[in-house]
Amino acid sequence: MKIVFAGSGTGGHFYPNIAVAEAIHEIVRERHLIAPKLIYMAPMAFDEQALFQNDIIFKQLPAGKIRRYFAISNVTDFFRTIFGAIRAFFMLLGDIPDVVFSKGGYASVPVVLAAHWLGVPIIIHESDSKPGRANLFAAKYAEKIAVTYESSIEYFPAKLRSKIARVGIPVRAALAHPLPEGAAQELKLDLTIPTVLVIGGSLGSKRINDTLVQGLPQILEHANVIHQTGKDNFAEAQSTANVIIGNSTHKDRYHAFPYLSQDSIREAAGAASLVVSRAGSTSITEISLWAKPAILIPIPESVSHDQRTNAYAYAHTGAAVVLEEDNLTPNILASEIHRITNDQALMQRMSANSAGFANPQAARIIAEELLRIALSHTPQGPAVEGPAANA
């Protein structure tokens, strides 16, 4: 039994694949099935440790990106995608999977094309309220289409809608459960004031970093801050913060990190009173499962077609407010943080409104369907122990 995962090289595409793999392993253990061979095909591994921990084999595959503006690289990347599809065809031909799960994004296209040419069943998942072009392309080849937002269904052709099910976003099991202790003790947070967790997506956000750091003198007057800057932005954010709050009596309330591991983000979420975040669907789902009030700062539509619609769809529940990047200033961010954290009744309402938005069973639902399809293609004998279980 073999299952192939595909997706582009961002955390929003990668980690839902990991969440589904976790659920597959859980079901296999529960039902004493032979462990399937799991393969991740993409231009980059993204998180080798997560792949290793979930017994996923990585196979590198080239893919071209089609941009939303004119660029000569669109032409070269078109041929890169075709080359990637041909290469994926021969890679899959030598190890034909029972089913392919595609998270979308440009890097998924070669795998979807190759799977279609080989007659391999395909399940796709769309995270955003406005589907990406890769998934709209793949939908006509898919056996099942999983979506997160009800509003995304209207973008798919009417003849395909019988294949669509709203399941939510797969989230790694551990991340659905914040750790109430750890961060407060380790960082020596002042427990008499709120704590704000600032995350700019898996790679960080320079714009959010710059705005937050400039606003620190106001924010630290009444809140602790845990700030994930992104690895490439850490040195600049830290050095600028040292200059701006170096003489402040509250400088010890600011805690910057290039990256928060799975356990660290759980601890930070457990300590947080409010989350400031980009508006990727995976981030929104995690915040919803944490039941935390949020300020969402979506990437502008000129850069990303999805985050703004995601942000307003979630804010419509009353669980979050949206600050447009074009209007973002240090004073506005600091004032909004203070307005929310200073109103306990508002905080409680926002937390309550987050309930029900995310589906904690999304990964399990998708894993069940992948295994159903895979088992229908693969005769199953009794479970075996040791290396043969991963053959």
Describe the structure in your own words.
With 391 residues, the chain is α/β, with parallel strands linked by helices. 42% of the residues lie in helices and 14% in strands. The chain folds into two domains: 2-171 and 360-390, Glycogen Phosphorylase B (Rossmann fold); 174-354, Glycogen Phosphorylase B (Rossmann fold). The protein has helices at residues 11-31, 48-53, 72-93, 109-117, 133-138, 183-187, 206-219, 234-245, 262-271, 281-290, 307-315, 330-341, 344-354, 362-377; strands at 2-6, 37-42, 56-60, 99-102, 122-126, 144-147, 164-166, 195-199, 224-228, 254-257, 274-277, 294-296, 320-322. It has a seven-stranded parallel sheet, sandwiched between helices. Strands 10-9-8-11-12-13 form a six-stranded parallel sheet, with helices on both faces. The longest helix is centred in the first third of the chain and has 22 residues, at 72-93.
Please name the defining characteristics of this protein:
391 residues, alpha/beta, Rossmann fold, 2 domains, 7-stranded parallel β-sheet, 6-stranded parallel β-sheet, 13 strands, disordered C terminus
Q: What's the short story on this structure?
A:
This protein is of the alpha/beta class. The protein has 14 helices and 13 strands. The protein has two domains: 2-171 and 360-390, Glycogen Phosphorylase B (Rossmann fold); 174-354, 3-Layer(aba) Sandwich (Rossmann fold).
